[in-house]
Design brief:
Number of domains: 1
Order of helices and strands: HEE
Distance between the termini: 12 Å
Shape: globular
Strand order of the largest sheet: 1-2
Strand content: 5-15%
Amino acid sequence: MYKVFNCGHRMELYVESEFADEIISISNSFNIDAKIIGKVVGSDEKKLTIKSEFGEFNY
């Protein structure tokens, strides 16, 4: 399922962590809910790991 659907996220922004709180505040000022849903970590491998309440998925 993670390969096909965006799991209900209407928009995703990938930004430096130092800007996250400000972006969330701006979003909230327009009555748009926002939250941090993950992080990007450097790797020497080409892989994606999703950790959720349903388990860990590696692609």
